[in-house]
């Protein structure tokens, strides 16, 4: 019998799926998984799911990793090592490690959980919250957990309200008037609308709540099904919709807003354009995502470093930043910065200009370089005088006549170390 005032989060494991590459981010995921990509000047993408769990009262977490996981594992070890086992709290990292067979890695999102059933059993939890580790949002999971228990559902699915056009890129749900899911469709051409609206539909956030004993049996059955892809969205959820009770939970009911009239903020930063835009949006006067909210902080690994420093004050050589975020350890030496976001330990040199640029940690911006609408990967040394994204910028072609730097469909230029090395090969 449930204890009065007992928070469900105390009996819940947050299981974060963080094994994917995120290939649409191009070279940003060449050396790291998508959840480990830097975001917002200080954090990594995975910090949002983990912080939501922590702020919701969940103290038992596990992260399933697979693709190039070293950066992600190192970040979690450094930034999330404050849990105390003697208080029955922890964050376990569960790499794909051939636990089932020597030739079998995680073959689907559900399989990542299945392969760790024995470990999850040892936690002694009652509920399991399945999270994607690659989205930017703030959400109180306790509200969703409570709705799951009150509805008596077999699974509760976190849902976004999106337009019919946007829904074509999501897993989409049709629901009845009680928000019970009646069908689950992957990227439909004609998405069903939600109750009370002819233009909006419900899209899956890839976020699910189950009673562990129920999911455990379902995973074992699914593992033995030869036709299954062992995926939550493709197999597990459709099975429950057809044979059990699947409930929709609207993100608007549990999102954490920085103001009462603020929109429900959720972003999939899975493309270069979306990643750049979400970072640049933080430079707005009143951004929809509030990183300054101490009531719902985004936890991360914080290095000890000095404040940002701005030097030189002569015409054309003035170190200053307008409508920008500049992180600790940066030295802005005679550089003009506008609507840009600089991560830690970025050094800029005299007469350089940055406009709508996202600069990841440990970069050096060469003297007189001009970068507009760019994302610069970690540790890049931008050559002196390099111009990218400006009206007078050259095409920057290699010896075969192919572009050296990747430009997205939205006109964002991605700059990485190998690209700059190739630029040096051409220019000597």
From TrEMBL:
Residues that span the membrane, as ranges: none
Pathway where it operates: Glycan biosynthesis; glycogen biosynthesis
A GO term, aspect molecular function: glucose-1-phosphate adenylyltransferase activity
GO BP annotation list: glycogen biosynthetic process
Positions contributing to alpha-D-glucose 1-phosphate binding: 106, 171, 186-187, 204
Annotated site residues (Could play a key role in the communication between the regulatory and the substrate sites) in this chain: 66, 105
InterPro entries given in the database record: ADP-Glc_PPase, ADP_Glu_pyroP_CS, GlgC_bac, GlmU/GlgC-like_hexapep, NTP_transferase_dom, Nucleotide-diphossugar_trans, Trimer_LpxA-like_sf
CDD domains xref list: ADP_Glucose_PP (cd02508), LbH_G1P_AT_C (cd04651)
Domain Nucleotidyl transferase: start-end pairs: 14-283
The organism's place on the tree of life at top rank: Bacteria
Keywords: ATP-binding, Carbohydrate metabolism, Glycogen biosynthesis, Glycogen metabolism, Nucleotide-binding, Nucleotidyltransferase, Transferase
Tagged with keyword Cytoplasm: no
Root EC class: transferase
Entry's family note: Belongs to the bacterial/plant glucose-1-phosphate adenylyltransferase family.
Name listed for the protein in its UniProt record: Glucose-1-phosphate adenylyltransferase
Protein's organism: Palleronia salina
